[in-house]
Amino acid sequence: MSDTLSSVFGALADPTRRAILQQLMLGDAPVAELARPFDMSQPAISNHLRVLEKAGLITRRRVATARLSHLEASRLKEANEYVERYRRFWTESFDRLDDALRTFQGPDDEPGIEHDA
């Protein structure tokens, strides 16, 4: 699984590839359509598509003369589940810190209110 995650996160590291995936959320698209928003050649976009395909984030198929790219959202789901475990860890850690601070402050201490010594 880690090799899969490495290729997914590597593919997601590039802003152009992330933008392509966003476009594909709207539906399958040919290279020319995917290249339109970018100031780069279709071969350059094709290189990005190869990286996305190798990572399993897209599949490509021929329809007549067009080669359409299709978003494979399941790979994004796997990556999200990996990141989600760490989000839960940090949320629980911050919750424990909040509890410790409340215990340390005591019931009469409210944040932002100064007490006479």
Summary keywords:
117 residues; three-stranded antiparallel beta sheet; mainly alpha; 62% helix; 3 strands
Report what the structure shows.
This protein is mainly alpha-helical. 62% of the residues lie in helices and 12% in strands. The chain has helices spanning 2-12, 15-24, 31-35, 42-54, 73-105; strands at 29-30, 58-63, 66-71. It has a three-stranded antiparallel sheet with strand order 1-3-2. Helix 1 (2-12) packs antiparallel against helix 4. The chain is elongated, with a radius of gyration of 23 Å. The mean pLDDT is 86.
Please give the structural blueprint:
Layout: H1 2-12, H2 15-24, E1 29-30, H3 31-35, H4 42-54, E2 58-63, E3 66-71, H5 73-105
Antiparallel strand pairs: 1-3, 2-3
Largest sheet: 3 strands, antiparallel
Number of helices: 5
Gyration radius (Cα, Å) is 23 Å
Order of helices and strands: HHEHHEEH
State the end-to-end distance.
58 Å
Question: Helical content, roughly?
Answer: 55-70%
Strand order across the largest sheet: 1-3-2
Brief sketch in words of this structure:
With 117 residues, the chain is mainly alpha-helical. It has 5 helices and 3 strands.
